Amino acid sequence: MILEEELDRVRVVGDDGSWLIAIEFRLVTVKSSPRGDRREIGRRAWRLSTGEPLTIVDRDNFEMPETGELLRRADTE
C-alpha cells in the first residue's frame, strides 16, 4: 500500500498576486512482513493544494512547470 504523508504546508503568492497553498509531501510504501508492517520512505515533492505539481527554484521560490509561473513564500516578505 502506498500512502502520502504531508510534511509541510506554506502560503505562497503567485505572479498575479493570488494567494495559494503549497504542500510538501512524501510517498511511503507500507509492506507487511511476518514481524509486522514495514515502512519504506519514498520521494519528496511539492504541489499546490489544487493538485498541480511544483518544482523548487530555491528556498523561497517555486515554479509551476506547466505554466512557468513563479510562486514565492508569503512569509518571507
Question: How would you explain this protein's 3D organization?
Answer:
With 77 residues, the chain is an all-beta fold. The protein has one domain (2-76). Helices cover 0% and strands 69% of the residues. It is built from no helices and six strands.
Protein traits:
single chain, 77 residues, mainly beta, six-stranded antiparallel β-barrel, 6 strands
- Helix vs. strand class: mainly beta
Q: Give the N-terminus to C-terminus distance in angstroms.
A: 40 Å
The strands making up the biggest β-sheet line up spatially as 1-2-3-4-5-6
Task: List SSEs in N-to-C order.
Answer: EEEEEE
Number of helices: 0
Helix content: under 10%
Strand content: over 45%
Instruction: Identify the overall geometry.
Output: elongated
Number of domains: 1
In terms of per-residue confidence, which ranges show pLDDT below 50 for 5 or more consecutive residues?
none
Mean of residue pLDDT values? 95
Radius of gyration, CA atoms, in whole angstroms? 15 Å
> What's the story with the biggest beta sheet?
6 strands, antiparallel, barrel
The tally of strands reads 6
What is the topological layout?
Layout (H helix, E strand, L loop, with lengths): L1 E12 L5 E15 L2 E13 L4 E6 L2 E3 L6 E4 L4
Antiparallel strand pairs: 1-2, 1-6, 2-3, 3-4, 4-5, 5-6
